[in-house]
Amino acid sequence: MSHAGMPHRPRLLIARRIFPEVLERLRTHFELRVNEADAAWSADELIAALQDCDAVFVTTGERIDAALLAACPRLRAVCSMAVGYNNIDLEACTRAGVLVSNAPDVLTETTADLGFALMLAAARRMSEAERWLRRGEWQRWSVEQFCGQDVHGATLGILGMGRIGQAIARRGALGFGMRVIYHNRSRLPAAQEAPLGARWVSKLELLREADHLVLVLPYSPASHHAVGAAELAQMKPGATLTNIARGGIVDDAALAEALRGGRITAAGLDVFEGEPALHPALLELPNVVLTPHIGSASRPTRLAMANLAADNLIAAFTGGPPPTALNPQVLPLR
Ligand code: GLV
Q1: Would you name the residues annotated as active-site residues?
Q2: 8 Å CB contact between 329 and 104
Q3: Which of 66, 133, 168, 171 makes a 20 to 30 Å CA pair with 29?
């Protein structure tokens, strides 16, 4: 559809339903196609919807790979409102001259809040206690009822010490008096470690020493099952495990086994292998707190994430620098 007096606008597919105010911003620059039904499209459905589109606004769910790029030759930009971009083959996009952007920073504190909440809930058996209460089982108060683990003063272990890992460390060190240890491929500069009292340790030491282990590393083939049966077997008895990173970083079957056997005491999980499906054993176990991938889900943060994806799209097509491009070397757009 061409508007009188308006140059032809690029066509943008919005792969999931987003906030109306962000759509309105985008509508002034793009001809929009929107997944009004908010369906989780299959690869073929996404390719079909993308025909004749110049750009796509994605979330964590849409897979952008070489096959899709080959089937959508007009595509020039893939802008995600997520920080993690393991659903996007960045190298293939760069080879095809397709811009990719993600949405870092704006979700750091909100996601750290959820990680901390899950850790607390797991350690203090909150979901388990609430389910029991809702079942009408509370007849009397007793001394050992739902005794869990302390969080304050305990050792917080962080695997992956990027922005979100550091925000969790800050909460633990400054708010809860925790001793913070972490493992990361690269050690933080001393000036960043010092205010957190954070100490770099080997992965084995992290597993063995943490009372509460939180996973905040990006997913890649290298981090697939970074925590599996062997790693769980190294964890401190009584420890908890929290995963707010990505499904697949933990071997969920091995985790269910470790929780069932009491090898670790509890888990807080926001992400799952094969989500939205869950390993059935996780649903049966009392000592696991489950949330449906809501790490960044506060309204202001989700809005900021969507606006950042929009900023990248608008800049890419109007000649400005996209603020959080992952492969700015492809600019200007084809
Ligand atoms: C959510 O999981 C994200 O990567 O933003």
Answers
A1: 246, 275, 293
A2: no
A3: 66
Mean pLDDT of 73-93: 98
CB 166 less than 6 A from any atom of ligand 1: no
Cα–Cα distances in Å, from 67 out to 71, 92, 96, 111? 6, 9, 11, 32
Question: Model confidence over 189-228: pLDDT tens digits?
Answer: 999 999 999 999 999 999 999 999 999 999 999 999 999 9
Q: Kindly report the pTM of this predicted structure.
A: 0.95
Residue 176 contacts residue 151 (beta carbons within 8 Å): yes
Q: Is 296 in the pocket of ligand 1 (CB under 6 A)?
A: yes
Choose the residue to mutate in 57, 81, 111 for probing ligand 1, maximizing ligand atoms within 8 Å of C-beta.
111
Phi/psi of residue 31, nearest 5 degrees = -90, 120
Domains of the chain: 11-106+299-330 (3.40.50.720), 108-290 (3.40.50.720)
